[in-house]
Amino acid sequence: MLRLSEASKSFGKVYEIKPEAYLWQDGLVKYYLDDCAGAALSLAKNAERYEGRFGEPASEERIWRDAVELRLGSSNAKRKGKRGGKAKGATAARAPAEGGEGGEEAEKESIGRERRKVLRLARQLFSHSLRDNPAGTALARAQLEAACGDAFPSSLASSLPRSPERSESRPPATPLRPDYKMRRLHSLFYLGLHYDALGMAYEAKRLMKAALRAGADGVGGNNDRDVTYLLPVIHVTVRDWYDDDEFEEGGADASSASRAGGDGSLSGKEDGIDDPISSSSDQTERRLRDSIGGMRVVDLRGDLRRRGLKVSGSKRELQDRLVEHLREREGGA
What we know:
Layout: H1 4-17, H2 25-32, H3 36-54, H4 59-79, H5 104-112, H6 117-130, H7 134-148, H8 183-197, H9 201-214, H10 227-238, E1 269-270, E2 273-274, H11 281-292, H12 297-306, H13 315-328
Antiparallel strand pairs: 1-2
Helix pairs in contact: 1-2, 2-3, 3-4, 4-6, 4-8, 6-7, 6-8, 7-8, 7-11, 8-9, 9-10, 11-13, 12-13
């Protein structure tokens, strides 16, 4: 049984002794205790402390802080009857961008400095969602889904936005590769956290269970000391999602393929294993087209206009133009 209240009190005692202590887990505990204001403030402060001390982006803290704001917005939207929406006026404490500058450009620079590929994509996913950038959100989501490989829950095929004209022409699934860097687990988890923050429990539950399965064999040795390996367990426990629903099978044994590592380095190949993000270009494009399939023509034209691209043509032509542009900018969007 998780003792979150006791953990929160313990963190509070540490802060009483050392107010500037770096305890990013405090924000996670507050998130799961539904203390959104406290979580955002704690995560923002810890992000600032980490970046000030180590000179590296505090991506985990910033992702979770963004999750708090999305959660606040979705809660307000739900009261207005909008599933997965973002309410206007939802606010949460923010951490200043690295270097003390604020604004979108500074945030992009901070995200670009993140060397861990999955964390960079997750930051893009949450950041674009908060900024109401559907195309950027679609690209980040598509790349994370591609990184999941066949571990991505098949039951979500009917619930996520889809492009009907392409649904019948999907190539056969490819076997799961060994997940030595735990990129598959982290991709599943942050996708699940994103849907959780949006109040979309069906999607979040299946992604978290897939992450739980992917990491089942990854906790051992020194891994059990790293809270990030236990996040799917914590999330499923707090949400009480241990029920009669079966865990979905992937194209291969995702658990036994998920051993060791976890630093998520940028190298395209490591120990002879292909990087699932870099080696799944076709899959990324398919998922990207699926993700933007639900965008209205007016939204497609608006996004193309902001990017300085032509806005004439049919909906399919607009989608093709946007996909081509996003793929050209892949990795830096």
